[in-house]
Amino acid sequence: MNRKVRVRFAPSPTGLLHVGGVRTALFNYLFAKKHGGTFILRIEDTDQTRYVEGAEDYIMKSLEWCGINIDEGVKEGGKYAPYRQSERKNIYKKYALELVESGNAYYAFDTTEELDEMRERLEKSGSSVRQYNAVTRGEMKNSYTLSGEEVQKRIANKESYVIRFNIPVNEELIVHDIIRGDVKINTSELDDKVLFKSDGLPTYHLANIVDDRLMEISHVIRGEEWLPSLPLHVLLYRSLGWENLMPEFAHLSLILKPNGKGKLSKRDGDSLGFPVFPLQWEDPKTGEITKGFKEEGYLRDAFINMIALLGWNPGTDQEIFSVDELIQLFDLKRIGKAGAKFSPEKAKWYNQQYIKTMSNSELAEIFKPIIAEKNHSCTNEFIEKVAESVKERIVLINDFWAHASFFFETPKEYNPAVVKKNWKEDTVENLNKIKEIIENISESDFSTENTENLVKKYIEENQLNFGKILNPLRLVLTGTGGGPHLFDIVSMIGKEETLKRISKGISEI
Ligand code: GLU
To answer: What's the total number of domains in the chain?
Structure first.
């Protein structure tokens, strides 16, 4: 690759960044880092009617949480600033006029009503043409039907107008996509898209092409929904005399619903109970709160690992990758053409794998705020021990308290199903015996091994059933069944608390 790699993620602040957007940003980022290039964030906010308050900020915060670092952007600045299209307003008109001048674009003065009428007329006539193009423009109000003088007069009178692209007639165009190969299209299938609007702003198409050129973008990596615009973009490059400077294109396939039927949407997340956004969002209009992966207890690295494998694969069956590994291995050619199914189970699986392999001290840092929120204080050493006992069991960080609360507080309730199964006639008598044994162990000998040996020795010597003793003991200590090694719990909560919980259980169950 002899061109300096410069890629951009170019979201419109019209809503939230969902997993599809995160993946587009991530693939751009990985590609840039792999080739020692630059990752740019450009905000495409020329469509003022679709602007959503707070969306831009949300996008930036999400990228930050994901660790997708921006080299040049709205906040970071850079040689090609500004990076927000609304602040580049004055740049675009020149190019629109240049296109008019060279005959590649023209003025059109049609009102909304006239455009609607045209559509109705075409529909009624049964014509296969349904759009503003070389066939239909002769019936409309534009540079082709009005005299040059009339056009100038209307502009001078500040009449509302747009500038449309003059799509060439019946040309076989071959556009190349890195993922899909050559895509063939006849230009007669395209319409004369508006490039410049009556509000003095460019449309997406013009602004996007002009900015990609001025910012010296080398590769455009974006969602598949933009593939139909590619022929127009190629024609725009050609008409502006930039054909040799055109970036290469890679269009990413859609992210599909878990059942593979259609595009993943926020509604799927709501109805099936999984997040589709990286961070929480509060709708400025309705106040409705939508939780993100972060708030649901996913780890950043697990989330990124999962996203990276949506549609890309390294060619091996390795599934766990650090970001550095992803950078090293990333290759646009290994992105699939087919849509990638989003799997909430897989997202959880990734999180679980990451939790399991994290060190106890790393996990302790994550758990500390949860413990503080519950108004408990304890040493780091204690939290690390708790981390060790629960890390095999928790899937999401938010599961921590459900699996660990008994390390910090006396259970308030006892799981009725577990009580029913384990609380028998002789349970109280058995637990009183265990209480006696524990009373006789000194605080300094209260280790996992020692408490376990002494209790088990008693059970064996008296030929009792392990489950009959140990299950109720677990129940009074934790409020439920299952969980970390029982004598780790005994040793960690200590002698006094163990005795207190046995007494409480005996009197309350
Ligand atoms: N602003 C477009 C979007 O919202 C960018 C498309 C592109 O990357 O060219 O997706």
So the answer is: 4
